[in-house]
Design a protein that fits this description.
The complex is a heterodimer. By secondary structure, chain A is α+β, with helices and mostly antiparallel strands. Helix content of chain A is about 30%, strand content about 35%. Chain A has two domains: about 120 residues, 2-Layer Sandwich (Alpha-Beta Plaits); about 120 residues. The radius of gyration of chain A is 21 Å and the shape is elongated. Chain B is an alpha/beta fold. Chain B has a domain of about 230 residues: 3-Layer(aba) Sandwich (Rossmann fold), CATH 3.40.50.280. In chain B, about 35% of the residues lie in helices and about 15% in strands. In chain B, helix 3 crosses helix 6 and helix 14 runs parallel beside helix 15. The longest helix of chain B has 21 residues. Chain B is globular, with a radius of gyration of 25 Å. Classes of the chains: A alpha+beta, B alpha/beta.
Amino acid sequence: MTKVRIKFSKHGPVRFVGHLDLMRYFQKVMRRAGVDIAYSEGYSPHQLMSFAQPLPAGATSDGEYADLTLQSFRDIRLSESQNANAKEELSGEDTLKSLCLRMNSVMHEGITVTDAAVLEQGAEKAMTSVAACRWRLAFRAEDPLGQRAKDALAGQGGAKAVLTRFLQSERIVVRKKTKKAEKDVDLKPLIHEALADADGVIRVLMKAGSVDNVRPALFAAALLSFADAAAFPLQETEQQMISALQVHREETYLAAEEEGREVLLPLIPATTPTRV
Amino acid sequence: MNERLALTDAQLLSVEKPERYIGNEVNAVYKDLSLVDLRFCMCFPDVYDIGMSNLAIQIIYGMLNAQEGVWCERCCAPWTDLERLLREQDIPLFALESQDPLKEFDIIGFTLQYELCYTNVLQMLDLARIPLLASARGEDDPFIMGGGPCTYNPEPVADFFDFFYIGEAETRFTEVTDTVRAAKKEGLSRRETLLRLAGIPGIYVPSLYEVTYLSDGRINAVTPKEEAVPKRVHKELVRDLSDTYYPLHPVVPYIRVAQDRVVLEILRGCIRNCRFCQAGQLYKPFRERDVKVLKEWAIEMLEHTGHEEITLSSLSSSDYSALGELVDELIAYCQERHINISLPSLRIDAFSLDVMRRIQDIKKSSLTFAPEAGSQRLRNVINKGLYEEDILRGAREAFLGGWNKVKLYFMLGIPTETEEDLLGIGDIAGKICVEYFDNVPKEERQGQAVEVNASSSFFVPKPFTPFQWAAMNTREQYLEKVKTVKAGIAAQVNQKRIRYSYHSGDVSVLEGVFARGDRKLSAVILKAYENGARYDAWTEHFHPEYWDEAFASCGADPAFYAHRERDREEVLPWDHIDCGVSKAYLYREWERAKEGKESVNCRQGCEGCGAAAYRTGICPGGAA
């Protein structure tokens, strides 16, 4: 058994394919591509495949990850001798490359495997190792709230100026609703960096994962609420953000230690020994 | 991939399941418009989740797209949330692939799978900004075409369609598209094109027929308006099912649809001759696909869809002569790949129990019997060919094999039905329980005793069946019968092991009206649509008051269509359509039904229904 982490992008109309359907999509990709994926034991066996972090509905991405547990690298559509021939021609990195090609050849053009790496024994799962994400966010002019947001930011010196003031605040306290209760959370330490360009497009690196996750909609709502609390009440604005905010995930990161300090590395770090 | 979408992101994110409207599924077909001279839009008048589960759509989609110069796209009825949005924001209904408005197409084809979808045809035309009435359409409007089981009596929707295709699509569809392509090139008028289409076998152009009525509302005659138009339209039928188009690369939806699996159609038609069943008559003669061909197709489809399940589709799988061989081959292929096999419509016997044991988990599955009627007398009336001893033997063998759940399907309102027949439902359910307790020792019951789930639906007489002359029960009669059945079950010793559920009769009467309706009903359907009716098959969207008002304001009486027994001489609204079985045969069967006499099935002998004229399949002179 080999664990392989794949990185993929999601673009175009398929951005509307929700997380659960995307998982079903990949299960079908495995079968179409003849990937020799391992199955769980028990009553209703399922493919051993897990995704790093769900993408918000309608968002595009260049930094999606999934872990696959493979029985072997062979193509189960082919006979043993055909697989043996294929193996002779390939070795090491080529095996991974061929796996990516096989998947991409049966996928919709909007979803593409862009990288793959073999995980070491005992490596942490993609799902639990997510520490941060870099997002690209833009308010949509075609949406009433999106247009109001653009106007409000422009009226206060532009997105860049508002964002600078926002990040200079001592604390950025937002009321977060959990399943049980509401609690106040300070976003300030959860935002690693953020910058805006002249068109008002914001790029932000924020904490993600199971502990200190900041959703793009919450970040955007907090920014607007900071700009004009009366016009953009936090919770209401956050709820309506889905249609007002264009979201793109650039990269998903894990936390690692380098020379005694914490650094963020992509889920497949550039230094990984066996990668495509 | 088509990057362009008809809706903005904000609009798509404001509706439920936006994946219904974005196209771009695996195996969807995209073409360069500059190389296309005929645009066809295959429409399904219900939501995407149902539409994309339909085999006919996949067949026609694949078959048309295999032609150069023809691009077939798809469109399903927008769900109520999108309909609201399209109206509010003034967006015309669009096709999934190009996302272009339907109005830009040459032909819009609807498949009519059930009567209660009629208002959704109007909803789609309306949202597409195409005139609802064929008579109001101009030279620039697309041709509206209908097909599918409901078109064997297309009269209730005749006013909305330019033409109907009667029968199986594989044989003449290319002739239809070729004719329209040629007509476009030659610059023929709409009427000239329709006249040409009427010359293709299986094509029915309702506007070319005159319907006259008697003073009591019954039909006097249906006559062609032009000499070149055929008096009767004969069903089209595939002679060799192993040598015909089949969609080996069907579209794979992103969302979980009703039929989220590979559908392998193993045969068409049915040998059984059940008298209530319309499909059994419409798809005659019984024709099987070659087992080698099916095996190749199954693998090709599984590899190109990635589905985790394959279902063998037919009206009666047990009648497929090479079922054992096919199942063995499929199990060999599927098991190591974790692909499930489902086999609906099996008759329960030793063979099918063995098959079921091999392909599914006994603990999770239940056995299904469809006795349809509670007494042997009534089962003879419907010619079910299923006897109490078969049911009890099947149940006993299943119980001994480890099953303990049984489903029983019944119909209420079958002609000649008596109280005794209704009480028989409780009796048979009770006897099944007794089989369990008599045969399964206590220590093997593992704390889970037998569970019998009986359910009943409302019998609706359909055209081209021996019951096409029969009166349908009223809703009140039906609900009375439900009470009797309940009492019959309550009287059983093991009544605690029996659960009973029944379909509400609300929509059944409407279904009965349309099933045997005439052309006058087009006005009623239009009025009900204007009143707000759509998605009538969905209980939560069915509003009887829209229909009551529509019948009243059009002066039409539902009882005339649903609850009236017809006599032999009456001209039926569908008499000018020929589905391959003769009216004389159906009437013979109607008389035998009333006498409680059975007829043979097509393997046992020939009752001379008329389908032998197709010279194929199981019929005398056919290949099999």
